Amino acid sequence: MLLRALRRATTTTAAASAAASSTLTKPPHFHLSTSRLFSANTTKANLTKAKKSKSKSDGKDRAEELQVTDTEFFVKQDEELRRRQLAEDENNPALDVGPNGRPLFTSTSSISLLSKKDACSYMKFSVEELNKVLPEGLPMGMVKEFEESSRSALLIRQSFLDLRDNFRRAVDPSLLVGSKGSKVRKQIVLDGPVSCGKSIALALLVHWAREEGWLVLYVPSGQEWTHGGFFYKNPQTGLWDTPVQAANILQDFSKYNESLLKKLKCNTLDPIPLGEGAGVGWPKGIDKMQISEDSTLYDLVQAGINNSHAAVGVLVRLRKELSDVKDIPVLIAIDQVRKLSLPHYIFFSVLDLPQGLFFLYANSLASITLIDYCCISTV
Known about the structure:
Order of helices and strands: HHEHHEHEHEHEEHEEHHEHE
Largest sheet: 4 strands, mixed
Structural class: alpha+beta
């Protein structure tokens, strides 16, 4: 009995000891739970911080957008207020006072009627009317002037009046009698620093010439003649043909001058050589375009617009036709002519202008890059 009791006690002790040992060696369950809880809390904390950071970033972006919107709104309000004030000021004659007590705005209704007394005063224009007279486009200097001043008015300078009077005397010799002015020039280059008013003076001269019934080839952006489009080396002339630019020039030339061009007959009836068209290659089965006896300059221009192979040839022929026009004065006015000479060693067929103008900007002006230019020539 005693032996059985001892064995039972030993077995119970061993079991208890084994259980205790098992309890001690097994990793505590709460440690694992705590670790998982910590990991979960950390992830949630990071997500919360990320959301808060994103929320702050979004809030900052929205605040900046609102600030920009508010700024634009106030700028527009200020501009609208300025326009209303200027409109009210125009009805107050007491405010129309310029230098030396003279009127700030001239009452002269036409550029042709401007005189020395109108120098240093402003002349009001209608933007709609300017777009009609200058359908090729307004110069950027003029557009910027209108935007910054909030009114469509331009300063009339004595230099412009001298320029206008020079070409007025060039086509009317009777005005030279008793005149003590400078020698009449049929070709003039306007030079000066950037944004000094050359483009505006050139545009005003074109405006005046068209009011007087002149036939005017006006190019407000000479850069467009040599930038973009296609360039093809002409094997016959050795020059670079630019059919896209040629067609654009013809298109612009016909916008205002359509009625005059329809009245002028073609003097040269020789066939016009065809060249490589813009993206279509050479013409097949024909190398020249015939000119009929009853063709007008308008017909000639339209042929160059509608036929890419003929665009360059028509423009070169138009140059010759313009030099033969005797019934009405012809004016060629090119802005941004300095950009035509860069690179000056490349000569383009479309730039072969009359009266030596080609050599003027290609040779004389190419070496000067700090001065801007406009070229004017009468045919």
